[in-house]
Task: inverse folding
């Protein structure tokens, strides 16, 4: 019973436990750990200098800046939306609430490729609106605004879906008390609600940001693959890879991998360090 | 008349002293409409401009039908495999004690956090003929990279967290007394699993299965690098849409996207229903 949490008669025989451990951890090792390790192995295949050169390349630097720009616009907008939506949904009872939540979840069930396609159809030269835009020299599709809009779409639900269940569980008593004591709406939100939801909010922002910086499919469709103009970091990885420049592709990919690992680390830290606090806030 | 309307309107929202309902709901609806509803309905409007014959011909052409078979078939298979291994991983995380458990737990979410393009090139590097795994499999005649088997690996990768994350909390909250009761009534561990534990995790397992399947259907980034993208052999539906777009065949891309979108909405509906079922089950016990 070496693997069991508490010595108890209700557990499996030792060899079943060993078998399950072997299957579970073996599957994780082959499916998750090996690909992770291979990113870094491939990136450093030709040594540190080749790795550094790939990252210092002007196009790589441009891609990093563009990705940061896109995330810097998309994430705050979706945070504002997430806060507004969770306030309206969690603090009030109104008809059609479940339907609204379903609509908010919608972008998660749409293929990234279709997420890009809808904006190409809307803003591209094929539509009347797109024609009007091009007559007025406004570039959206195959330009940076298109990348931002597609990123907003795919990262749309993250903050809201993190906050809605949390705020629903917390109820409305504390806010009602604050209002009764004379606080205004904004004051109540900042002094009462925000401290209660800060970890949930941080968590939502973290996931939203990771997806915003790593999105590939939707951004690929609206980007038009214009080098030095619309290639974000994931698209730059694709370009390098398709040119058989594998070391550079994996070097750039390693930045995204580090981003993913930092995201997971922060997420685990919130969960373990603040588990007690989060549980208390839920009551 | 006017008062009757006012009463009816009041029924739509329960009164509350908390301010900010109008402005937050208004902003939510406006943002939702601009970012999601209008662009998505644009897709169906565009599809409506295509004649039915043309639409039907596009979505039933041999190459597209092969792509449906590959996308649906492999997503389904990947979801099954994820159910099996996902349940095992959820089980050991919920019930066993072992070193580095927290790291293993965190790594389950890696497929959520790792950009799909990175996952795609990493998996391809592993299973290519010179890769860490490929160098052993290829001499045995097992070709993973640039074949449907590679697509399967990528879909298993992206779908794994869904099953683990839906099943794990149920196993953690399970009442161990029920298992003790089963044991004291003479059930073997195997019978206890199938008759006591398994029925309670079925809704969560099905939810995880459906989520993994839905994710697999739409997945693009992690698949295209490893698939080889051979028409009628290893071409997925999202790739068909991209190819049609690159050829400026907007009508064709829209038609195929409509079929996929309807499939996704049906799955979303099923997942919502499953989650409600799982929630009811939990409330009842």
Result:
């Amino acid at each position: 019973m070496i693997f069991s949490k508490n010595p108890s008669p209700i557990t499996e025989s030792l060899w079943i436990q060993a078998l399950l451990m072997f299957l579970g951890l073996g599957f994780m090792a082959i499916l998750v750990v090996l690909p992770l390790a291979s990113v870094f192995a491939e990136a450093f295949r030709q040594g540190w200098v080749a790795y550094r050169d790939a990252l210092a390349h002007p196009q790589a630097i441009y891609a990093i800046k563009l990705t940061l720009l896109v995330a810097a616009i998309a994430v705050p907008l979706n945070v504002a939306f997430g806060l507004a939506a969770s306030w309206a949904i969690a603090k009030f009872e109104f008809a059609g609430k479940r339907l609204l939540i379903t609509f908010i979840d919608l972008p998660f069930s749409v293929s990234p490729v279709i997420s890009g396609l809808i904006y190409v159809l809307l803003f591209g030269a094929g539509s009347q609106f797109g024609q009007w835009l091009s007559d007025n020299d406004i570039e959206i599709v195959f330009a940076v605004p298109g990348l931002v809009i597609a990123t907003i779409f795919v990262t749309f639900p993250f903050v809201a879906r993190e906050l809605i269940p949390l705020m629903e569980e917390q109820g409305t008593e504390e806010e009602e008390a604050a209002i009764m004591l004379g606080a205004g709406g904004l004051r109540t939100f900042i002094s009462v609600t925000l401290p209660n939801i800060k970890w949930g909010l941080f968590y939502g922002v973290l996931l939203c940001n990771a997806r915003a910086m790593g999105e590939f499919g939707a951004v690929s469709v609206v980007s038009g693959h214009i080098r030095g103009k619309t290639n974000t970091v994931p698209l730059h990885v694709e370009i390098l890879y398709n040119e058989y420049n594998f070391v550079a592709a994996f070097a750039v990919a390693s930045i995204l991998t580090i981003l993913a690992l930092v995201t997971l680390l922060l997420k685990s830290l919130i969960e373990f360090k603040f588990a007690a606090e989060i549980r208390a806030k839920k009551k | 008349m006017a008062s009757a309307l006012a009463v009816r309107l009041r029924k739509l929202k329960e009164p509350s002293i908390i301010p900010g309902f109008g402005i937050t709901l208004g902003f939510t609806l406006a943002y939702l409409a601009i970012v999601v509803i209008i662009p998505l309905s644009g897709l169906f409007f565009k599809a409506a401009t295509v004649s039915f014959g043309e639409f039907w011909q596009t979505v039933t052409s041999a190459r597209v039908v092969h792509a449906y078979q590959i996308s649906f078939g492999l997503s389904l298979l990947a979801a099954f495999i994820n159910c099996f291994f996902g349940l095992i991983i959820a089980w050991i995380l919920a019930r066993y004690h072992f070193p580095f458990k927290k790291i293993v737990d965190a790594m389950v979410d890696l497929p959520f956090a790792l950009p799909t393009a990175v996952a795609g090139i990493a998996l391809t590097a592993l299973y290519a003929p010179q890769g860490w795994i490929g160098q052993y499999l290829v001499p045995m005649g097992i070709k993973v990279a640039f074949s449907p088997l590679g697509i399967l690996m990528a879909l298993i990768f992206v779908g794994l967290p869904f099953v683990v994350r839906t099943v794990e909390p149920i196993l953690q909250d399970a009442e161990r007394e029920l298992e003790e009761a089963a044991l004291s009534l003479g059930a073997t561990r195997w019978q206890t699993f199938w008759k006591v534990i398994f029925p309670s995790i079925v809704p969560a397992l099905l939810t995880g299965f459906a989520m993994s399947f839905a994710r697999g259907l739409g997945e693009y980034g992690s698949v295209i690098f490893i698939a080889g993208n051979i028409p009628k052999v290893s071409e997925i539906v999202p790739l068909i849409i991209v190819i049609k777009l690159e050829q400026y065949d907007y009508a064709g891309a829209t038609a195929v996207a409509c079929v996929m979108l309807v499939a996704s909405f049906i799955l979303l509906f099923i997942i919502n229903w499953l989650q409600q079922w799982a929630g009811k089950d939990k409330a009842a016990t």
Residues 58-91 of chain A form the longest helix (34 residues).
